[in-house]
Amino acid sequence: MARLLPCPVARALDFAGDPWSILILRDAHLGFTRFQEFRKSLRIAPTVLTRRLTALHKDGLLEKRLYSERPPREEYVLTDAGRDFVPVLMILGAWAHRNCGSNLARYVDAETSTKIEPVAVDAVTGARLGSRPIRMAAVHDAA
Predict the structure, then answer these.
(1) In the prediction, which pLDDT does 142 show?
(2) Using CA atoms, how far apart are residues 18 and 4, in angstroms rounded to an integer?
(3) Which of 20, 33, 70, 137 would suit a FRET pair with 40, their CA atoms being 20 to 30 Å apart?
């Protein structure tokens, strides 16, 4: 019988696995920082937004910063871990573009307006992910 290994995908989904969290991280990457900005962009119920922002903060993907003392108001910005999620967002978007219709917005370089085609590659071999078989290995087994 095969031994079950701790799955990195399952662990990542614990942190950002619901659609609202992913969309909040997308908006934070686009520059949204304030509660009302997220609420207006996402058309999300305030209670749901509060829960998701709290969870993303607790999980270390968003940082809270005080921007007004009277009344006290906080904004949310991506942490290093949150910025590390941006390529995941781009790969999700690229997958959707290829498989869910071409009528979707495209990624473009903000400085040059050149179209961006996100692709995931292995940093060690340079091989495009999905082009070769892979398997899960325990940390001490991985080369």
Answers:
(1) 54
(2) 24
(3) 70
The tokens for 70 are 């009277």
What distance in Å separates the CA atoms of residue 128 and residue 46, rounded to the nearest whole number?
40
Q: Which residue has the higher pLDDT, 102 or 128?
A: 128
Q: Which residues of 74-98 are buried (b: 16+ CB within 10 A; e: fewer)?
A: ebbebbeebeebeeebbeebbeebe
Return mean pLDDT, the chain: 90
Crossing angle (nearest 10°) for helices 8-16 and 19-29: 80
Q: Which of these, 49, 10, 47, 7, lies nearest to 27 by C-alpha position?
A: 49
What is the C-alpha to C-alpha distance for residues 64 and 73, in angstroms, rounded to an integer?
10
Please give the model's pTM, rounded to 2 decimal places: 0.86
Cβ atoms of residues 65 and 73 within 8 Å: no
